[in-house]
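In the laboratory, one determines a bound structure by crystallizing the protein with its ligand and collecting diffraction data. In a computational setting the workflow is compressed into a single prediction: the sequence and the ligand go in, and a structural description comes out. We illustrate the idea with heme C.
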Amino acid sequence: MSALSLCVKRVVWGLCIFCSVQTNAADNLLEMNTDRAKFNYQMFCQGCHTPDGTGGKSVPKIKNYIGYFLQNQIAREYLVRVPGSANSSLNDEQLAEVLNWMIIELGGESVPKNMQYYTANEVAKLRQHPLFEVVEYREMLVKKLSVK
Ligand code: HEC
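The predicted complex, in structure-token form:
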């Protein structure tokens, strides 16, 4: 094999590896539009949740906490089924995006290292079952979370 063809082979392999790493990252991040996510949070959520997620008397703290809900499937589903999410005027893609954004941006140390991002499909299914008696349901979930 000539030196030239060996060189070409290396470049092609290099490109393949580079491209596959790129696509995985993109899939995982849903190609999140952070500006749009932030704008939607500001328009539709932060009125209650406050700009930095601290919340208030009846609005739970999201800051450094929301990521704990990703520890189990029922709690993960809760973040979509809670009325503020499920009944919002955002479409499925935008809701998935804003939830992912809230977790990454405000979740701090609560966010699991191997975080699985919400997808539009997942959100579409879950928001068809919005919760009603939220307070007690939330308390039940929180008891099962391991919180630092
Ligand atoms: C009118 C006030 C209000 C608005 C607006 C609002 N929420 Fe909420 N949100 C709440 C309250 C109150 C809770 C606590 C659970 C409950 O009682 O519904 C909550 C809980 C949540 C939770 C679960 C967090 C936890 O710790 O329990 C998520 C996720 C959430 N909201 C997402 C959103 C998103 C996304 C938006 C914007 C699209 C939004 N909310 C808009 C009031 C609001």
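The first helix runs from residue 3 to 29. Keep in mind that any predicted model is a hypothesis to be tested, not a measurement.
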